[in-house]
């Protein structure tokens, strides 16, 4: 391997690291000695091979957790390797000066130095080894020298690809940063020299892309050091600050040719970097971080220095905008990075530097650009201006924002993808802003004058080249609907036509999940807003949509099917009268097993079946009774799965709640038997919680006696076992307000409307049951999960579905099946107990006082008092 | 692959959901290996006696010490003339006491040890006994093989007999020699113990003994307490504890320091060992010593209390009741980072206790200094502070978590997500996820998510999804998916929650 060409060597090193992961060090005891012996060979081709192998083997020390095994290995490596590596390092540096005029020798030697520096990083990562602490002088002095070194022979012509010098210096910055961060105490005396060397390096490094990594690493190093209290003195001198600002920060904020290219030709990437903050490694980002770091201690001076720069750059721009527009871009960027202390997508900047007058800058320098008649002139500056509005929307007063709204709408027409995307995004963000008393900041009335042009421009923007599936525009459409509400009704016919056309077009090849999601949300909003004012309009939506939906279902467009079911649920729930026949025709198809095979469909399908049961239970019972076994088949399939059992219970609960009792009579016992089987096979916390809600709902719907009879009908004394082993010990685990309420009302019924609880062997369970009900009212929820369930619960938690995208605007209100009969379950308990006690005077108070614990008794007395009743 | 073992280890060490709090306490020696240099502020294992002036007036009466070559020494010690033997032994002792490069090894190789051991027994010549004991003390202060040579030469038993010598100087030198032997290793320590040295040593402690002598005795006792694997036997510890308790009431800095070190060794272990020490009622005094301005007292007393709170909840409570929590804040902001680190470590173990103890931690104002350390401490200190927060979040109530967040803990935690230490990064991710879950229960998640975003947390967590350590990547991904998904945008529309469960009277 060591004699093979470099490219091959790289592959072979990777192979060795994989083998080494298994065999090293135990089964490969002489590897280290062999490697170290090759250092003596003097052949740097061989040495580099060894170093590369070592790097493959040791680089895992950078990301693995500390463990006895790992540290034993590192200790072994250090004992055998640290000294030879140090000697090699010194020798290589000497050779570099001997061969200072031999380009090809230098290239090999510098490759060695890079590898040695990487090895240094790996070996020093977990902790500071004794050897390296003792030899810090040697390493750090040489690193320092290398940082300041330059050699014309090593400079490359390539503008993009980093050369050996850059790679080496970049790694040394990382090494210094590692020491500064983790071994501050020991490194302290070297640090100031590195700070100086690194900023000199920054001052002398050019704008080419090949220096990007080096520059951003170097700036990040300074950023991390300058915010530490005990290094503050290294920066506080006004001249130092000025020179950092002038020579390090400002140049790295400039808009470069590469940025310009991305802006025009790769807008999507540009937007992602600029807007979503995926710019972690860029120079601009590093420079911003340095500004923020310096502002921690020197906000005043830094702001002062930069204000001067901003003014002079703006003056340059004013002299000749078409040539100097980049100066203004840099000025805006500088103001932005200086002013923003904390930022979120939802609110923009949330903490700003008070020394910067943001409104004044907005009025004098941002608005004029956006007011210019030509939306296509200086697109970068337009994008900057729009972004400024977006991120400082919480600092700029509302009246100014209102002025900018028609300007933003106007910029939806700009040809530049970045500009019209930013305009859409800015509008969307402005429309979500909160004003006083939690309403939106902008009212529908305030936007009303622009409704038509807003909607027109938004949909027109979707026809601009490159933006046919632009998620920012679609999101802005959705948000405009949501804000404007009934103001959009006059435009609905055109809007829904455009939306369905879009839907039809993208369903051929769905590729932008966010775009699609917002599109369906917009459809749901159209339905909701229109039908709220005029429920009968639902029919026209069905006419417009069903054709496309049918096509989607027939072509089996998997990404869209869950959405279609959700929209249909919304439509079906909007019907006030009995279920239309068009839906009933679909009903049998929904029960086909193949649809249920895809987990992404399940929540939406259950939701749709629930809507069928809610609106059409009588129709199903009378006209489709033969489909009830199919419905129960779905339930059976769902509860068999640990992941989907809660969905099975949703369905079952709807059946119990809505179906006429006689239509399911013959299946009831079988349902309970299925549940018991699952309980025996795998009893998970989630299943128990759902099971408890179900039996209590059953008790409410069919009566306490019916519940007792069905259990005891399966097996004698079963009811007692369920009470003792499940209800009493587990009820504390039930979560969710409605779920808890159902359980409370169900248990109250068991306590007060179930004769066997009063006069059979079950009586001994009466007080424990009451006690656990009071616990449910008063104690914190028991959210412990048994150890063995730790690793299943992440994916199985209700509500967490990766493949299912829930539509917010298709959501239904939380449904409380006991809402109409019980308002306050505690009062209800008190009243029910009172009623029971009048039927059998004397017994209830004695049961309560003999075995209820003192705390519970006190709570119970509170309920009785609040209900103004007593126990007889 | 080791990364696959990690979840299990994490369940045991940290992300723990059962109720056994002791599992969360970090013992000092989770990983017993060290890559670092041994710490300078630990207690000396062995000490050489290099005093220039002989403290023994009896030897001054004798002829002026002569200087001899090694060969001359060898031949003279092997003679029978007690005077020549004395001269040669003293010359050897001087060689051994040279400040630089003492010839320890040469003397041993010259075969002097057995003779020196012989001289220990010559009770007629206390000054010879003294010189021999001194020489052996210095040999034993050397590397293990030399200490071993002293033991193999049969020195232990005669040294113990010298503890009853009427000559104070001889007795004191014997104490010192035994200290060096015991300080070498658990094996040699146990040889000294099983030769019944302890009762004799303890008998020497009295109010009349001089302070330098008492210092030596204390130091030797501390070496007899040193080392685990195995620990000194419980019976001997029980004999020593009352005397250590007595010594702890002294006012001399060195005595106090060494007594505290002894106690720190005894408490560095299982709960039974800790219980033995706590049972002597030593805690109030230890807590008082934690206020000492002497670093040599502060370090071991803090270490001991830190060890004690790795014990059971009851043992921890005794330390809390003794007032440790009112001393800790000043130690957390001590100028020395090593003290900050020990204090934060102790705090992390209090935070691993039940929520009542966490409450006491809050009540004693521990959160502000903790946050300050997370922000500006050295990395080794920040690490302990992160553990503290982690234990706090696993054991704390929702109310306590709110207080933690309000104390500003998230800002430094988010900053530390870029630290080059995978374990710490993972712990912080777990802490964030735990706090998010609590916020979810209180319907405060949206607010918390915004706060995290403002602090730059989302950017960092998103970047961590690509971390080379798979477990970190997965944890970051889970946080993003379950808490920062786009759907959050609609939380407002859906979140108009009617809280019927609240009393509506």
Question: Helices and strands in order, then pairings?
Answer:
The complex is a heterodimer of chains A (872) and B (505).
Chain A: H1 6-23, H2 31-39, H3 44-58, H4 68-98, H5 103-123, H6 130-134, H7 136-148, H8 164-182, H9 184-187, H10 191-204, H11 212-226, H12 238-253, H13 257-265, H14 267-276, H15 283-319, H16 321-339, E1 340-344, E2 348-352, H17 358-371, H18 379-391, H19 398-411, H20 417-431, H21 444-447, H22 451-461, H23 471-484, H24 492-506, H25 513-533, H26 538-554, H27 561-574, H28 581-590, H29 593-597, H30 602-623, H31 628-639, H32 645-658, H33 661-664, H34 668-681, H35 685-702, H36 704-714, H37 718-730, H38 737-752, H39 755-759, H40 766-778, H41 793-796, H42 825-839, H43 843-851, H44 854-866
Antiparallel strand pairs in A: 1-2
Chain B: H1 2-13, H2 57-61, H3 70-77, H4 82-97, H5 104-109, H6 113-120, H7 126-140, H8 144-152, H9 156-162, H10 168-182, H11 186-194, H12 197-204, H13 211-225, H14 234-247, H15 253-267, H16 271-278, H17 283-289, H18 295-308, H19 313-321, H20 324-332, H21 337-351, H22 355-363, H23 367-376, H24 379-395, H25 398-406, H26 410-416, H27 422-441, H28 445-454, H29 457-464, H30 470-483, H31 491-494
Helix pairs in contact in B: 3-4, 4-7, 6-7, 7-10, 9-10, 10-13, 13-15, 14-15, 15-18, 17-18, 18-21, 20-21, 21-24, 23-24, 24-27, 26-27, 27-28, 27-30, 29-30
